[in-house]
Design a protein that fits this description.
By secondary structure, this protein is an alpha/beta fold. The strands form two sheets. A five-stranded mixed β-sheet has the order 1-3-2-4-5, sandwiched between helices. Strands 6-7 form a two-stranded antiparallel ribbon. β6 and β7 form a beta hairpin.
């Protein structure tokens, strides 16, 4: 009997371990990328603004679908520390999803909350920048000099 109680106590204690958080709100970019490197997970930075019902629905769907396999950082461009996202990575369409590898390389910037946009986000994780089947094209040419310049900007 004592062994059973001890086994149950060990099981409960082990299952109460701290769960690693993978969903964040307004986490600074540097912290997000550092966490991605530590965890070896890709990052979705979802740029939105208050009062955007499509953004909220999209964020809920992404959260439910990907909260274990990628690091999610939902950023509000109205927050003073996040306004640079709107300038450098967002066309003004909300939500905009920026897909980064665990190494910090920008894979894609996809605007919109449609199923096609979400499919394009998924497709971009493979390193592709053109989602022709979904009629989405990566906003930036992530090759050559531009990729190098953007990389320096994002990783000073």
């Amino acid at each position: 009997m004592r062994t059973i109680i001890l086994s149950i106590a060990v099981f409960i204690f082990a299952s109460c371990g701290k769960k690693k958080e993978t969903v964040f709100y307004d986490l600074p970019f540097e912290e997000t990328m550092a966490l991605a490197g530590q965890e070896g997970k890709d990052v979705y930075i979802i740029i939105s603004r208050p009062g955007c019902p499509p953004c909220e629905a999209y964020m809920n769907e992404v959260n439910n679908k990907h909260n274990k396999d990628v690091i999610l950082n939902f950023v509000d461009v109205m927050h003073p520390d996040n306004q640079w996202y709107a300038h450098w990575l967002c066309s003004g369409a909300f939500p905009t999803t920026c897909v980064f590898t665990s190494e910090g390389d920008l894979q894609a910037v996809v605007s919109g909350s449609t199923k096609s946009a979400m499919d394009c986000v998924e497709f971009s994780r493979s390193g592709e920048t053109l989602c022709a089947d979904y009629f989405y094209e990566a906003r930036y040419p992530y090759t050559g000099d531009y990729k190098e310049m953007l990389g320096k900007l994002l990783r000073p």
